[in-house]
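Recap from last week: sequence in, structure out.
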Amino acid sequence: MNFFSSTETIGRSKKKEGEKLGKGVVAVIGVPFDGTSIYRSGSRFAPSAIRKAAKIFSPLTSSGKNLHELDIVDLGDLDLPQTDVKSAHEIVRNRVSEVLTRNAYPVLLGGDHSITIAVVKALAHFFKEEIGIIYLDAHLDLLEDWFMERNSHACVLRRILELEGILQENIAVIGYRSVSPQEKEFLENASIKLYSSYEIFEKGLKEFLLDLTGFLKGLKRVYVTVDVDVLDPAYAPGSGYPEPGGLTTRELLGILHAIGRKSRLQGMDIVEVCPPFDHSNITSLAAAKILLETMSYFKPIF
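Predicted structure tokens:
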């Protein structure tokens, strides 16, 4: 039994849990797992919080897109073991693989960031071609291990880079502002595209988006992973690992709109929302807005 799951469905979607998946359907999956969280646990409660927050928003996005024109299916929450990272990740990978075989778009509500390892495993196996990863995070997540766990939320990008078909030059990290000595050493021989939050501030959003657009042109398909701590704690106080000096919500939405317009979006996740540490649902509301605005760019044809 999953004590952290929710009976809520995402936003005001016209489709409900249990309807058949099909081509071009947006498949929402709740992943109530925070088994690798060390500093702040509680992101297992986020899928429910994000769903509730999403209900207050209009189906018309800020770019004028109508979410009611999308086929959205909320598949509910996965039942996951909180103390077995490997087994939990395998359940996530299998569910995402099932969604992909139906030619549907996976949209995951985390959970801690470690779930993205499982998602990208499924994507890399299904497409058997280079897929681009847009990694929005305050941290690089390039550690070899974290507290002796190699599949930790702090090691996500390191594990992704080990997957067959994933090329460093097809990955961009946006909004980071924390680098460990180990990660700095790793980056000396890496070809990941890096945009720190300070670089974005100094360039200005308009100039940064011109650079990002050039990067996106070289990608066949794009998966977007959003760690809510990419936002400054003023805009996302309830994150699993807050780091001052981040993006504003408006800046992040501008970046996601640019990605949606300029790329072939294949899936996304929003992770590390930590409701026990949130204030007035600020973080859950931001996550819900990020989710709905980005979802609007999925194409009807897979």
